[in-house]
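Regression test case RT-17, inverse folding.

Input:
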């Protein structure tokens, strides 16, 4: 045997005898192994070693199998042995034997495992694995635990979540570098190594010899298999090689799982450089080895890598690292931009010009630093293994093997270094890969394990230049997709940016590398290194500048863009991930004073990069028009580091700010973005398509805002605080293009803006100023205050769920952590500002989540409209916040009208930014405010309330932040002198407010009204009287002499800019370049403008007071409050003013102005004293008249609208009441059908389509809109009270034996075994499973109208949620889902009175009549023979009813297609509907009334349809059960005579309720009441007898004989027939004649009830037995005759129902206890008929006593149906089911689901379990629920409903602690059952209302 094996292994390459000693051949593998082990154990083991090597050489020869594999042949041509597979198996077998050294391999494994010091878990998992992350225990944000370790550890009360791994990972349990030890599980709580015994030397000795050869063999395979073709090797080839290697890699993986001892051997093997050198040098004489070495070299070359021997490589000082240590300058050279510098200190002078000179887009490769990018030298197996792993694009198995080794510390370091060494190669492979997504995940799977560990990261940074490598690799990666920037100066721009359309950015291919970089920057020691290294910072800024200005948008002015590019996704993602997240990482280490130096470094290089950027794009002072980029990462780096410097490091802001000119440049682009936002919202960019709106929204969206808009606004705030305020303000209005609007003239021309955009742009400019001046996010707010403000803003817009709040509040992005740092403060702030609203259920069934809503005091004091405006993505959210605020004020009675946004006090400014407030105190702003107030007062066009609101807000801000309290004296003294231009004397708003402006010269178009008039006599010329006279004349005189100036913002701005430029000495010689466009050149350049002088004579104060008059609509409405109550001036904080509209705002401002200065107070009083005389009506100016008319007209229109709306609402309400009541039918208005009064002879129906009313006739029948559905709800009733639980362990199982459906099934098949088939089918009902349930919304329509309606639906192209071809539609009135129309039978609805009159006929006559009527065939008013429309419709609806359910639920007959089958099916439909209605009423009729289902019940119509069809089958009068019930049959014996034919079912085995339905449906309709009562009475006698028989079978032998005796004594009393004792004793004696009681035997003891039967318990048993029948009968009577059901207590239900049915004689006294037997009314002598019935039973029990007994005991007390009980915590379900294997396909399903009705576990969408094109869930829904399935999707926690061919997501019944669903378990928080929701679900299931309540249905095409 061994010879053959050896020959096979060697492949016949040499004769085996030559090497192995002859005895070796005779031995088998184990013996050889043992022999070698012994040889090697000797001290001199050279011979043994050589022998082993020779054996291995042969066994593991890589030559043959892969030659075969490479040729792609499976044939074993190359050397027999059963193909390559066999040879490899053989080799593996040898290895296992050799490792075990002759022993058994399994024992060897166990022995090695015993030495495992398992301190670390290290379990490796792949994508989609479910793991846990606990933030309380984690040190690194990437920490993760496997489920086992998580559940074994104690994490109660921790902040943890479950997550589905995206890229794979490994368990960190036991690793104290990544998590706190308190979180370790029981298995990995640190074991000291002392108690692990030392590994005996000989145990692993063989491994040390065998494994190097084995791994080398593997590497040779990999070399062989890799054919370097011209193009990229196809996936297929690589996969083929990998499949062949599967067993080998799995073998290695198994070795790693043997624990620490084996891992350390493997580590030795993998990292030993000597072994590697010996085996792989390819120098030996072995041709095969040579060839493989050549292939290896080719692979290296083709990868663009060099083998160091080929070229001289500089700088390798440290052999082990295999990469060069870089000097700074070499490194800087790597960027390909600075040229190769000679020494690092030249960098400063050289850098800037070097950058500026860059013209190439493709950076030349000659300056590349080859040591990082191109050199790889492998010195160990590990290094080459990793090389091939990358080459083969990270096969999962290899990755898992490499990661499984990580618990070995020595290996971990070696592997990390190797990984870093291959980093550039990884990047290159990734760029070329087709499957970059999969590959990215695998890369991160590895790198996250290596770089999350700070100690390791620091070590690699120091020893292998990790940072240099990463930055360089990133830079190179991006260099491949650069294009020339078109920003600013298109022709001459030298700037290059990334092209967002390239795959690299579009597919996020850079993600793994950036993610590693962010990961290592989270370690302080590494980040500090980065921040200290100037060269690195220069390179990094260089990298960031590639993104500066990317994705430039140019405004389309003519036609719409053809193609909307979606590159902006890529651009925003790239800036966030590649620039912002590393920035946040760095910032997190600059928190204390000691780190000032780092900030200075970053700021310095950032400014240099910015300066270079401005030079490269050729920027001077004006941005190019109509273009905007949202990407300015350099600006944002600068801004964020400034903010940190001031906030945390106490740096002096001015020390890190550049000169004024640079500040002016810095503010341009962020300001351009703000203006563009306003333009986009004003629809000026519509021709650029929707994507531009998308950009504007993304820019402010919660995940981006703190890296985008917040830094931009902060930077603008910094610039504003340092630049000249007049310059800044005029820049703003110029950027927003509204300068021309700011004129006193009523008309103007705007050269840069269309009139329709002016208003919204002006609003935009003012809103921007308000935000700029009131936002304090970076200007002094603490982190908690910021969090609170953000939260309040979000909550004010809308109530929010906890998770959406977490999502909407910008985090300080600590990348990759899904939480806000310090989430404790999150919870505490949340509870401080919001109330929790628990989830409620609306009757519409729409599931609400738990919501947080702002507390009242938050609305009162903290609602901040500015913050809301800043944070809204959609403009409608601002409106929503205001509406909610208004509602709050109305509700709390604080303000009834429409309030304005409240003014909110701000956090004090940080001293460094005090200069910002100068904006509020500069003349330019005051002139703008004055002009706008004047324009609003004069009703110029294009001004809105919003503008006024913002103007007042700015004035108020100015008053709140006025510099110093000015003294009045000083002001009056130097007033005139200070007045150096004609507008305002000074720059302080407080004093400028009272400054009067008399005349203004304006430029107006010649058509303007101002030109034609003379300067009008001013009404307010002397308004200020004596107070002003002392100092007024001079000024007036100057102004009148024509010096009133035109104020031009633009000219001002130019002047300022010029001054600054001239001031800065270095640039003294530079002249502003002349503008090409003459747009702004001179204020008056447009020829058609002319100058006019306006007389104004107003001050800001007087304008405000007039505005007050205007807003309130009354003259002199303003009266200074302090004149009445002087207190106001002392304590100005008055709640009265905090909420209100414009009037309140004006009052508040005037009060503040008066407080600030006594002068203002006096002037206000002064203005108010000049009481304007009442104005005579004729003097109303045109403008005022216009506004008044407009007001009146609007008022009238408003009233009209209100009226219309009210009318509409009331109509809608009445409609809703009649139509829409789907779920709460209690308060329903009875529909027309039942509303007909008894005396009306014919029912009248309204057609909801044509709107006509009329009776239903035979030619034009009317029908009810109905929904037919198959239902198995009845079948789910069980007989035990304890509800079934969903199984959550292997032991718990649910068996369907005790369900109602199963019991009825067993009963029918038992009957069919022994009795005649046709008779069996009349003895029971079917429809417990798959019964047809009919329900209606109560609306009627003509059947011909319905047909045309269906036709129109068919032609309707709109996608409907239902399929018209299947006859589905929605009710035209109430839109309820329906699929058929049930014809209404002509004639009255409530049976006519004459049928109702009680007749005095005795029961015998009635019985005769009934029999005759039943025998008369087709006695029906509508003769079937004449095919009327009505009968056609009835037939078609019957067809519908049949097709509703599946064939298997209709056909129970043994002879297919027998008429008995249809007969059975039809009366069972009636039974199903009655039983279900009973369940909807709660299982009994105690509540009485025309219950819920009554009003929209269609049972009456249904009965007519069924009766019509039942009459087509006449029962042969021989077999009619009615005879057996009412007559004594004489010829008894003849029946038993013919043995060969199966007998009929004995009458006592019949189901009485079924008999009732058969009897009634066989009668001609409409039925007479007395006939109905007669049938019920007769059937009750049978039912009662059945009860007695069942009772007798249930009790013990002694009880029986006792009863038999007592009853016999009373037999001759007068009412013996009505005494249950007598009857019982008679039944017992009759049945004793047969064998029914005989086989009591031992097995029966179990059935005997231990309780003694008292008369009371017997009575209760009898009543309970009869109740179900009485209930159904009463319901039937209620529907057929329209009688109300009486309500009662549960204990009296029997007596009430029996008297209601006429079973109880009327004279019956209720005093003594009620006895059920008194209801009996025997049609024939009781004892005779009973004895006849018992005789049939005895005949049967002669032969089958057992079955006879089983058939007699019927379980009649079914409990209401319920869904399975679910456990409290979702995790218990999830843990059991998500790994459970499917019983059908034995795989773990990808989407497991479990049926909530029966607990079956199914594969959702699984193709594995598909049968005849039906997937498993759909199939199960048909088998379990006749087409209705309720499934819980395990992986999503959601419930899905399947109804027929449609399905819908119902929602989840599991909510987290905040009352929220967690669909798809994305958040992974613990979920708890919500009982109310589950109740709602169960209710909808039982009431069959899924179709009506759930709105979102879609077809499932059998694919679920």
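Golden output:
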């Amino acid at each position: 045997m061994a010879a053959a094996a050896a020959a096979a292994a060697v492949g016949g390459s040499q004769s085996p005898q030559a090497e192995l000693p002859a005895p070796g051949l005779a031995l088998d593998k184990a013996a050889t192994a043992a022999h070698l082990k012994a040889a090697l154990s000797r001290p001199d083991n050279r011979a043994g070693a050589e022998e082993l090597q020779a054996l291995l050489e042969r066994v593991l020869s890589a030559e043959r199998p892969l030659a075969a594999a490479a040729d792609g042949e499976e044939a074993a041509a190359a050397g027999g042995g059963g193909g390559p597979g066999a040879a490899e198996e053989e080799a593996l077998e040898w290895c296992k034997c050799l490792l075990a050294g002759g022993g058994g391999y399994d024992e060897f494994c166990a022995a090695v495992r015993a030495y495992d010091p398992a301190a670390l878990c290290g379990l490796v998992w792949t994508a989609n694995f479910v793991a846990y992350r606990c933030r309380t225990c984690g040190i690194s944000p990437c920490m993760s635990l496997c489920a086992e370790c998580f559940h074994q550890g104690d994490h109660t009360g921790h902040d943890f979540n479950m997550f589905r791994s995206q890229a794979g990972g490994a368990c960190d349990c036991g690793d104290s570098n990544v998590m706190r030890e308190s979180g370790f599980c029981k298995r990995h709580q640190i074991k000291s190594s002392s108690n692990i015994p030392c590994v005996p030397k000989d145990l692993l000795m063989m491994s040390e010899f065998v494994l190097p050869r084995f791994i080398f063999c593997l590497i040779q395979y990999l070399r062989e298999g890799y054919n370097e073709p011209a193009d990229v090797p196809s996936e297929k080839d690589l996969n083929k090689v990998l499949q062949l290697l599967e067993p080998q890699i799995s073998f290695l993986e198994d070795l790693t799982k043997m624990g620490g001892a084996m891992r350390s051997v493997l580590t030795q093997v993998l990292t030993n450089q000597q072994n590697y050198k010996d085996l792989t040098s390819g120098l030996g004489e072995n041709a095969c080895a040579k060839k493989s070495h050549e292939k290896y070299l080719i692979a290296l070359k083709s990868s663009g890598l060099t083998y160091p021997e080929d070229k001289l490589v500089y700088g390798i000082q440290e052999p082990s690292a295999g990469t060069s240590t870089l000097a700074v300058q070499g490194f800087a050279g790597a960027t390909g931009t600075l040229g190769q510098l000679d020494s690092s200190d030249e960098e400063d002078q050289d850098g800037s010009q070097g950058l500026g000179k860059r013209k190439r887009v493709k950076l030349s490769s000659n300056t590349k630093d080859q040591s990082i990018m191109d050199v790889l030298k492998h010195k160990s197996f590990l290094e080459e293994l990793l090389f091939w792993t990358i080459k083969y694009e990270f096969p999962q198995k290899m990755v898992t093997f490499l990661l499984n080794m990580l618990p070995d510390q020595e290996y971990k370091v070696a592997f990390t270094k190797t990984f870093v060494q291959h980093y550039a190669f990884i990047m290159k492979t990734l760029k070329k890969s087709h499957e970059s997504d999969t590959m990215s995940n695998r890369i991160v799977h590895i790198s996250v394990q290596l770089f999350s560990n700070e100690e390791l990261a620091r070590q690699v940074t120091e020893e292998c230049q990790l940072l240099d490598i990463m930055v360089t690799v990133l830079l190179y990666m991006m260099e491949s997709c650069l294009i020339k920037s078109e920003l600013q100066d298109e022709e001459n721009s030298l700037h290059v940016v990334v092209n967002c359309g390239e795959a690299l950015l579009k597919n996020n291919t850079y993600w793994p590398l950036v993610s590693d970089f962010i990961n290592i920057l989270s370690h302080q020691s590494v980040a500090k290194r980065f921040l200290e290294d100037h060269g690195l910072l220069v390179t990094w800024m260089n990298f960031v500048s590639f993104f500066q200005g990317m994705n430039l948008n140019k405004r389309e002015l003519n036609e719409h863009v053809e193609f909307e590019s979606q590159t902006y996704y890529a651009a925003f993602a790239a800036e966030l991930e590649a620039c912002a997240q590393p920035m946040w990482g760095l910032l997190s280490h600059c928190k204390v004073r000691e780190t000032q130096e780092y900030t200075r470094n970053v700021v310095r290089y950032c400014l240099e990069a910015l300066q270079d950027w401005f030079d490269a794009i050729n920027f001077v002072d004006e941005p190019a028009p109509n273009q905007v980029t949202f990407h300015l990462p350099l600006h944002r780096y600068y801004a964020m580091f400034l903010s940190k410097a001031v906030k945390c490091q106490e740096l002096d802001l001015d020390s890190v700010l550049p000169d004024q000119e640079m500040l002016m440049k810095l503010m341009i682009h962020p300001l351009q973005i703000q203006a563009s936002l306003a333009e986009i919202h004003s629809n000026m960019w519509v021709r650029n398509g929707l994507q531009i709106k998308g950009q504007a929204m993304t820019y402010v969206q919660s995940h981006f805002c703190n890296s985008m808009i917040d830094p931009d606004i902060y930077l603008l705030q910094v610039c504003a605080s340092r630049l000249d305020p007049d310059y800044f303000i005029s820049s703003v209005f110029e950027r927003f293009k509204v300068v021309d609007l700011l004129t006193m003239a009523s008309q103007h021309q705007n050269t840069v803006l269309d009139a329709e955009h002016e208003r919204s742009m002006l609003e935009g400019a003012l809103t921007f100023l308000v935000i700029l001046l009131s936002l304090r996010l970076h200007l002094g707010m603490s982190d908690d205050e910021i969090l609170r403000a953000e939260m309040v803003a979000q909550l004010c817009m809308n109530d929010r769920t906890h998770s959406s709040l977490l999502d909407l509040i910008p985090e300080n992005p600590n990348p990759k952590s899904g939480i806000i740092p310090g989430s404790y403060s999150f919870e505490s702030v949340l509870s401080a500002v919001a109330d929790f609203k628990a989830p409620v259920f609306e009757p519409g069934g729409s599931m609400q989540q738990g919501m947080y809503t702002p507390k009242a005091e938050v609305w009162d004091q903290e609602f901040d409209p500015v913050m809301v405006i800043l944070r809204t993505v959609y403009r409608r959210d601002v409106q929503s916040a205001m509406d909610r605020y208004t509602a709050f004020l109305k509700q709390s009675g604080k303000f009834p009208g429409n309030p304005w946004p409240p003014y909110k006090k701000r956090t004090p400014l940080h001293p460094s930014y005090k200069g910002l407030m100068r904006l509020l105190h500069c003349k330019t702003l005051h002139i703008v405010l004055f002009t706008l107030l004047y324009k609003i007062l004069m009703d110029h066009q294009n001004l809105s309330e919003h503008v006024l609101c913002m103007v007042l807000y700015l004035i108020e801000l100015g008053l709140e932040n006025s510099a110093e309290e000015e003294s009045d004296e000083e002001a009056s003294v130097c007033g005139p002198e200070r007045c150096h231009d004609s507008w305002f004397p000074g720059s302080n708003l407080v004093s400028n407010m009272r400054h009067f402006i008399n005349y203004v010269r304006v430029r107006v178009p010649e058509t303007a009204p101002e030109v034609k008039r003379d300067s009008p006599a001013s009404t307010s010329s002397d308004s200020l009287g004596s107070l002003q006279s002392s100092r007024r004349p001079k000024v007036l005189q100057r102004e009148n002499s024509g010096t009133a100036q035109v104020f031009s913002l633009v000219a001002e701005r130019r002047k300022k800019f010029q001054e600054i430029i001239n001031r800065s000495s270095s640039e003294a010689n530079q002249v502003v370049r002349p503008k090409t466009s003459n747009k702004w050149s001179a204020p008056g350049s447009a020829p058609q403008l002319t100058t006019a002088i306006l007389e104004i004579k107003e001050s800001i104060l007087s304008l405000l007071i007039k505005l007050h008059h205007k807003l309130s609509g009354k003259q002199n409405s303003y009266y200074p409050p302090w004149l009445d109550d002087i207190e106001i001036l002392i304590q100005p904080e008055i709640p009265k003013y905090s909420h209100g509209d414009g009037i309140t705002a004006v009052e508040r401002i005037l009060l503040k102005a008066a407080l600030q200065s006594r002068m203002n107070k006096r002037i206000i009083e002064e203005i108010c004293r000049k009481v304007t005389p009442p104005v005579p009506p004729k003097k109303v100016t045109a403008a005022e008249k216009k506004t008044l008319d407009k007001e009146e007209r609007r008022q009238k229109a408003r009233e009209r609208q209100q009226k219309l709306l009210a009318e509409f609402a009331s109509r809608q309400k009445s409609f809703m009441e009649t139509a829409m009541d789907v779920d709460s039918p209690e308060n329903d208005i009875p529909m027309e059908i039942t509303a007909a009064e008894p005396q009306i002879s014919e029912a009248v129906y309204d057609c909801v389509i044509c709107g006509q009313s009329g009776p239903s006739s035979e030619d034009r029948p009317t029908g009810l809109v109905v929904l037919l559905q198959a239902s198995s709800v009845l079948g789910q009733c069980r007989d035990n009270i304890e509800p079934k639980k969903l199984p959550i362990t292997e032991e718990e199982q649910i068996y369907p034996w005790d369900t109602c459906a199963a019991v009825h099934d067993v009963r029918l098949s038992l009957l069919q075994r022994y009795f005649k088939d046709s008779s069996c089918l009349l003895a029971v009902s079917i429809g417990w499973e798959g019964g047809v349930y009919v329900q209606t919304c109560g609306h009627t329509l003509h059947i011909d109208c319905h047909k045309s309606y269906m036709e129109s639906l068919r032609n309707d192209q709109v996608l409907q949620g239902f399929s018209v071809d299947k006859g589905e539609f929605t009710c035209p009135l109430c839109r309820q889902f329906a699929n058929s129309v049930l014809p209404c039978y002509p004639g009255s609805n409530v049976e006519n009175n004459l049928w109702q009159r009680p007749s005095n006929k005795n029961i015998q006559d009635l019985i005769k009549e009934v029999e005759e009527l039943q025998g008369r065939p087709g006695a029906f008013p509508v003769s079937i023979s004449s095919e009327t429309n009505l009968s056609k419709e009835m037939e078609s609806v019957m067809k519908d009813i049949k097709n509703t359910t599946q064939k298997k639920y209709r056909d129970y007959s043994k002879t297919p297609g027998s008429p008995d089958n249809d007969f059975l099916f039809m009366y069972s439909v009636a039974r199903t509907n009655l039983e279900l209605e009973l369940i909807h009423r709660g299982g009994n009729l105690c509540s009485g009334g025309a219950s819920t289902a009554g009003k929209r019940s269609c049972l009456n119509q249904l009965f007519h349809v069924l009766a019509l069809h039942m009459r087509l089958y006449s029962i042969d009068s021989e077999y009619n059960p009615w005879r057996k019930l009412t007559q004594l049959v004489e010829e008894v014996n003849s029946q038993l005579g013919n043995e060969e034919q199966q007998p009929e079912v004995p009458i006592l085995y019949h189901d009485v309720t079924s008999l009732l339905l058969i009897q009634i449906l066989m009668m001609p309709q409409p039925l007479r009441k007395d006939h109905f009562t007669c049938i019920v009475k007769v059937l009750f006698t049978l039912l009662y007898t059945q009860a007695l028989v069942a009772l007798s079978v249930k009790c013990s032998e002694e009880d029986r004989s006792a009863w038999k005796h007592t009853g016999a004594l009373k037999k001759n009393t007068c009412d013996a027939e009505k005494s249950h004792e007598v009857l019982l004793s008679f039944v017992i004696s009759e049945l004793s004649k047969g064998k029914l009681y005989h086989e009591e035997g031992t097995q029966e003891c179990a059935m005997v009830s231990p309780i003694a039967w008292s008369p009371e318990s017997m009575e209760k048993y009898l009543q309970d037995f009869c109740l179900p029948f009485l209930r159904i009968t009463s319901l039937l009577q209620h529907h057929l005759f329209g009688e109300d059901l009486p309500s009662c207590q549960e204990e009296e239900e029997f007596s009430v129902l029996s008297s209601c049915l006429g079973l109880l004689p009327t004279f019956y006294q209720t005093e003594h206890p009620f006895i059920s037997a008194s209801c009996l009314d025997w049609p024939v002598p009781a004892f005779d008929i009973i004895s006849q019935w018992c005789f049939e039973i005895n005949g049967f029990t002669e032969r089958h006593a057992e079955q006879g007994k089983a058939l007699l005991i019927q379980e009649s007390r079914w409990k209401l149906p319920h869904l399975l009980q679910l456990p409290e915590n979702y995790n218990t379900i999830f843990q059991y089911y998500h790994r459970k294997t499917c019983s059908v396909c034995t795989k773990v399903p990808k989407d497991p689901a479990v049926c909530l009705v029966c607990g079956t576990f199914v594969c959702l969408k699984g193709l594995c379990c598909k049968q005849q094109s039906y997937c498993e869930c759909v199939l199960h829904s048909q088998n379990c629920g006749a087409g209705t399935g309720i499934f819980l999707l395990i992986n999503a926690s959601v419930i899905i409903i399947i109804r027929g061919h449609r399905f819908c997501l119902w929602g989840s019944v599991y909510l987290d602690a905040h009352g929220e669903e967690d669909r798809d378990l994305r958040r992974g928080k613990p979920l708890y059952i919500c009982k109310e929701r589950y109740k709602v679900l169960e209710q909808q299931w039982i009431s069959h209302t899924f179709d009506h309540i759930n709105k979102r249905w879609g077809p499932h095409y059998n694919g679920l």
